Amino acid sequence: MSPMDVFGVVYIIENAQQFWSELEDILHIPDRLTLDRLDATLRRFVSFCAAYHEQYLQSPLQMEHAYDLLLASELLAFHSERMSDILLDDARNATDPHLQLILYSVLLAYGRQNMSFLRSQKRWQPLLPLLMDNVVLDVDPGVEDTYSGLVTGSSSGGQAATAVPIEAKLRSLSVRLLYEVCRVQKLSLPELEIFSDTFIDYLFELVEQTRHMQDETFNYSVIKLIVALNEQFMVASLPSHPPHVHGKPALEHKKSEKADGENRVLRVLMARQGSSMTFGENMIFMLNRADRTPEDLCMQLLVLKLLYLLFTTEGMSEYFYTNDLRVLVDVFLREIGNIDEDNESLRHTYLRVLHPLLTKTQLRTMPYKRAQVIRTLESLVENETIHDIDPTTKRLVARCLSGDWCVQFRKTLSVGAPPRVDSPSSVMSEPHGMAAYAERARSGSIRGKNYKASRSAENLLNLGHARGPSQGRHGPLDGLRQPSADSTSSLPKAATTSAPTSAVSRRRDRAGSSPTEPDSPVSLLSSSSSSTLSAKPRRTPPPPPKRRKPPAVPVARSGLSALTASQPSLTELLPKGR
Question: Which stretches of sequence are listed as region Disordered (predicted)?
Fold first, then answer.
């Protein structure tokens, strides 16, 4: 039998095109229409959608398009107050679940566009018990898992491949409506009495039951409702005008304990501490996946408030796993540095929660990325001369950096700093080596950080003995050198050549394969303590010449002449008389 609307009209819809065409005709408002006809038009739209939603409004996009047609029509554009009251009255009195589904969906869509509609406690208070009754309905999680928010049927209409129970859709929609109401309203403690311990415990249990669903939307919706209720209890427990004694709040500790006792969300979670781990894990995942949309920004604030409460409550500071806390630190580092100036209050909330996160949880004894945390905090307050820094940000950063974890970490860095290795003194640890280094410093042979290794012939000779024959440098004339006394005795003479000669030698050393590095401890000790290594007295080298003159031949060639002095010259080998 085809459905009949309030006017007695019977609809016969065979495809999606007819459905959408008829829906647009219903919302067409003729001129000079009475208020009764306007009310009937709204109810006609709702009943028509309720009759065909399983065929032609299967996906969220299709539902959203239908509600957009209603919100853009003249019914709500010019008669919003009257139409919204009708929707609420029909939602309280409706018994058909299909009709309730359409009414709740329209209320949610209209409330998201008009927050003042959701803030009206007088309107919503009678509807809250009905929404809670839909939440506690027993639905098989395996069946509800098929409702993933995707199109289960074709765009041209037809039956869905898998029929989703209407109770599952009503429960998901009721959770979202309750969250929106609790997010924008400010309820008092008497008004919060409706949310009993049993109902809140069921919400936590619902999170655990739906943790394996492929679509996490419903699971996250329940978590958002829990954190919104937590914020309601936190705000309602705060005294409006706290009494002061001698300028200080009186009985602050007792009031804090009383507030914790009145917060039913915290009280139920403490009782379920060992059986609600999915709630904590998914709460961190939600924080990690949050975008910059207004809805996600609000969700982040609500989650951070509950995290602060857990970290500062005795017995709940170690509720999370250590790995989850490390993920939370990574999220904090990313968000604190990436939040723009328009959301400074969100950054302040992150900073307020960061302090107990690092001082109250397992991270106080299991450090994680402390250097990066300090750098991120310091970057918020640096360059104060270039741009203004918010005083609250400066105060919260100072609080975080004054924690014991930060003080101990900086003390560890100052005590355990590695020694500098760019100075020759770092390679000398024995007294003998230190004395030799001091003697060389007095003689002016060491030049501080830019000290270069000495390239004198004596030092090269010592380096050659220290490195061994396999590590010495080989030049192109090594094959012509003979192990004669003249060549050996010519090395001290080469050391006394003028400054340009040594400069040429240094340039060749840099161009060669030997790297320019400070002397090894062996060479420093051998050159500074020659009296202990050699019994022969050293001959004092002659003073350098007063005027710098280029040498006739470089050091290598003088060595060549010394090597070839005992060999016959080429002119001697030629026959005489030519």
Answer: 417-447, 463-578
Question: Which ranges constitute the DSSP H helices of 402-484?
Answer: 404-415, 431-443, 457-467
Q: How far apart are CA 252 and CA 299, in angstroms?
A: 29
**Bigger pLDDT: 448 or 45?**
45
Query: What does residue 2 show for φ and ψ, rounded to 5 degrees?
Result: -75, 145
- What is the maximum alpha-carbon separation in the chain? 146
Residue type, 435: A
- Is the CB of residue 266 less than 8 Å from the CB of residue 309? yes
Percent of the chain with pLDDT over 70: 60
* Whole-number Å distance between alpha carbons of 381 and 395: 10
Q: Is the pLDDT of residue 52 over 50?
A: yes
Who's near 45: CB < 8 A, 6+ residues apart? 23, 26, 27, 70, 75
Q: How far is CA 567 from the centre of its chain?
A: 79
Amino acid present at 126: P
**Once rounded to an integer, what is the mean pLDDT over residues 114-129?**
90
Q: What CA–CA distance (Å, rounded) separates 122 from 119?
A: 9
Phi–psi pair at 577, nearest 5 degrees: 95, -5
* C-alpha atoms less than 13 angstroms from C-alpha of 248 in its C-beta half-sphere: 5
Which residue from 100, 82, 81, 80 is spatially nearest to 35, judged by alpha carbons? Answer: 82
pTM for the model = 0.67
Sign of the Cα torsion 260, 261, 264, 269 reads positive
**In whole angstroms, what is the distance from residue 42 CA to residue 81 CA?**
13
Rounded mean pLDDT of 403-409? 69
Q: What angle do CA 58, 59, 62 make, to 5 degrees?
A: 95
**pLDDT, mean of residues 172-189:** 94
> What is the amino acid identity at position 76?
L
Q: What element of type H or E holds 245? A: strand 244-245
Give one word for 560, left, alpha or beta, with left for phi > 0 and alpha for psi -120 to 50: alpha
Q: How far is CA 139 from the centre of its chain?
A: 37
- Asked if residue 389 lies in contact with residue 381, where contact means CB atoms within 8 angstroms, the answer is yes
Return d(Cα 469, Cα 408) in angstroms, integer: 52
Q: What is the mean pLDDT of residues 550-567?
A: 49
The residue to which tokens 């309730």 are assigned? 100
- Cβ atoms of 358 and 311 within 8 Å: the answer is no
Instruction: Kindly state the average pLDDT of the residues 194-203.
Output: 94
430-458 residue pLDDT tens: 344 444 434 444 444 433 334 334 444 44
CA atoms within 13 A on the CB side of 403: 26
**How far is residue 200's CA from residue 205's CA, in Å, rounded to a whole number?**
9
